[in-house]
What does this fold into?
Amino acid sequence: MIRLKNVVGTYTTVRGTVDALDDVTTDFQTGNIIGIAGESGCGKSTLLKLLYGNIEYPLAMSKGMIDYGMKGPDGRDITTENISEHWFKKISYIPQSSMSSLNPVVKIRKQFLDFQDFRSRKEIDETLEKVVAFLRELDLTPEVLDAYPHQLSGGMRQRVMVALGTFFQPDIILADEPTTALDVVVQKGILLLLAELQRRMKNTMFLVTHDMGVHYQLTHKMVIMYAAKIVETGDSEEIFSRPRHPYTKMLIESLPRIGDAKKLQGVEGKPPSLWDELRGCRFAPRCSRAKAECRERCPELAAVGNGHSVACLYPES
Amino acid sequence: MKINNRLKIGIVIVGLFVLGGFILPIFCTVDPSLQGSYMDYAPVSWEHLLGTDALGRDIGWYLVFSIRNSLILGVTVAICTTAIALVVGLSAGFSGGRYDRVMMMINDSFIVIPAFPILIILNSLVKGHASQGAIIAILVLFGWAWSSRTIRSIALSVREREFINMAWFSGCSRPKIIFREVFPHVFSYAVVGFINSILWAINTEASLAVLGLSSVERPTLGAIVYWANTYSAVITEHYIWIGAPILATVLIFLGLFLTSTGYNQYFAERRGHS
Amino acid sequence: MKNFLNYLWQRLLTFFVVLFIGISVLFLLPRLMPSDPIDNYLQRLQGSAGQALTGEQVAEIRKALGEMYGIQGSLIDQYFGYLKRVFVSHDFGPSLAAYPKPVSELINLALPWTFGLMLVSTITAWLLGNLVGLVAGFFHNRKFATVLETLGILIYPIPYYIFAFVLIIFFAFLIPAFPLTFVVMPGPVTFQKIVDIIYNSFLPALTLILVNFGWNVLGMKSLAYSTKEEGYVLYARLKGVKPRRIMYNYVARNAILPQITSLALSLGSIFGGALITEMLFSYPGIGMLMRSAISNGDYNLLYGTITITIVAVAISTLAIDLLYPLFDPRIRHR
It folds into this structure.
């Protein structure tokens, strides 16, 4: 179980400070693919940064704590402070753009080896053997090791990114829109590969994407975020079949369905600016069901049964 | 928007030199380049703030005129090189294709060819009396290419941006797009290039003059060092004679360079915020 | 391979364009002068030397000069004649001051000196400047980085001759540690002679190193700083790659590429600076030869040295351009 307790992620800017993640408390069950959805600026990437422990000025975790429920090889608990020592061994990251994430002037081989210092040629050879075996599992020929990034196709490069991110079999994988830059056919291959690897390794994979269709097909759990808050979490199936938050409903309705005669509903309106003083429910201004109370009182994330939680005063039934 | 310290210091230094170089000469009664106006090697006094040199010239006034002449030369060259750089850089960056490739090849060639020896040839052909115009012409011929290279790459990257396509599709003509849409982005780089051109031109001319390869009768920052060196100011311990122009040159170059990098930084910050 | 051939072809073409423009300017310059430089020259030669110039000699010199400037025949013929002299026969005629010694012989004696000075000082300044610039850019928010950058800013815009004078004043007068001018006895190469050469070349080399050091520091600093923001550097950091390895394998390996191009492009001005420095320190290279050619009114020698300068710059630029693919696999492969 990965637990977030009252986590606040604050950015310091010239205009002052702004909480891009505002008092988030939630539990993530390990061994699942957890989808994170929401519009740009909702706090998805801040959540990922905090989870990864990539916290650098101007971002700070100003309140709260994350309990990873994991111990390092030295037996100590992994915390936000020491998690960077376990990057890629215990928690890894798959970026969205493979072209700009690989060093263009260094062969792929070297980029598999620079995680650690080697004491002997033999150690390097042993590691390389493992890399080759692992690449084979991912349907990649070992020849990619001798290639420079520009010599590979977009799909191959993204497979290399997946291989880099999963090589050490980390307990947690953060995939930040891993397929946005790819064409649809290649996208599907990468996503299936991720799902397959997760099933084999039984690790926890956080998958951020705008594509609700991907969430529907791939994820076990969903986290819906809106304006720096989590507004709904639960089993994906449950969320897609019975969304309780009006915002979740709006997101799902933006999905096309076969045989759907109704004109597609875009997501109307804009989330509020985090610079403004926010009172009451942050979604209220866009919500068709908002009542007077919604503008006054901020709803907390509360369980509604079946492991499903929602932050809404008048959830959909 | 806060103006950074570099730009502030740079502008103050350059401003002082420009004011001093262009206002002070109004009060000057004796042509400072005339030899034998005063006693040789007069010490520092109220009459001669920096003393006089071996040829009876007031070092202070000579320096003031040198600064003015060097600045005029630098600005003239910079105006011409910046104009050429804008035309070449914008047209190449914006047209792309074969024209761009050919222009850049020529451009790079002008960067590579050393201007200094060519200026030496020019001067020796006219027995050390090259006119200011001829020197400016050569400096312009070999001075436009660096800025043009930068401007071209800016134009190239601006061209890829969305709003240019918008203007393109809405039927704007090519020159109009270049001037309305690209120029504002290129402007700041042109300013930086302009200041660097001033610096380069003054530097090159001064280097020629120091070696006695330019007409040293006209006071410039190089000529004054040439005279001091010719009369071995260091050995004869007339340190002011050689020290004052060196200090002035260092300050003026530093001022110009601080202005250009400071402006660059200022513009980068302003862009970052908008 | 196609990329590489394309690159090669473009570099070669640029090489020829440099030569073409440089040589053409040299060819055209005397023709654009209002007065005939040969008459000027002969007048001055007879005025200053006054002595034993027979009519025969004058005619010979006039012919040599005429050929050198190619004043006989049509403009096109003249041009090709000139090209042939420069590239095929390497014949710049006899030196007029050291008559009848051929100019090419004098140049051959001076060229290794200039080449040595340039090579040592340019490589030293480039390596040192890039290393300092890399550190300053990589640790841009540390205090020492600001100090290093300020150092670059203070050094870069200062002209060569100022450095030369300041170094002369400090190291040859105030603390007489190094000689003011270059004195190395001719003779066989011995250990002592090598020490002498290094000792005598120290100040001119230091002048060149200082100016180019400043330029490289500033260039590399801003490149390293912007490379640090690249996706692959961020990714490497998130991979847990050690900072020192990130600095060398990621930032330096990428940021050095534009610095190589910039070195190739600035060779011309570096060479110009070397000429100035040689003249000020009486270092026995091409610059010194040029200076004596000017003061003796030796046009053949002057044309020879200047032509060789342009050819040397073009060749060195091409050499660096050809080394570039070694550092950039994107040009080497596919």
